[in-house]
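User: Fold this; tokens only.

Assistant: Input:
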Amino acid sequence: MQKVILVTDGACIGNPGPGGWACILRYETRHKELFGSEEHTTNNRMEMRAVIEGMKTLRESSHIIVTTDSQYVRNGITKWIAQWKRQGWQKKTKGTSGTLEVLNRDLWEELDSLAARHEVDWKWVRGHAGHADNVRCDHLALLAARKQAMLLRAARRSPR
């Protein structure tokens, strides 16, 4: 089984707002950088999108070490998702006896399906703390988000 290192990050200008995601994949001596954006999204969705897009590039089952600065992604996939699925994608609301639909269910289901094809170790790193690939992903995700914001501003200014 091949060992792949996947480092990810997401960014959003406003929350919600224009967002960007980025990931770096490392396999043996090769590495690949991917990034993209969405018009109206959240930082959590971009963090998730970065992992999903990285995993989607892998053609065969792999041992993946995912490095993320998102506690939401790491805890969601390692601690919370099993209970969410058991409870029909509902979670208890704090301080009440009610429930709410789990946010970002579409991405959680996609991430869960992709992760099931691989052996995945989930590693958290503090953002903006000197991890070279995390810093690079942050830079690429912000560039993608800023480009998306510029495109949106230009679209609003142009006559229809």
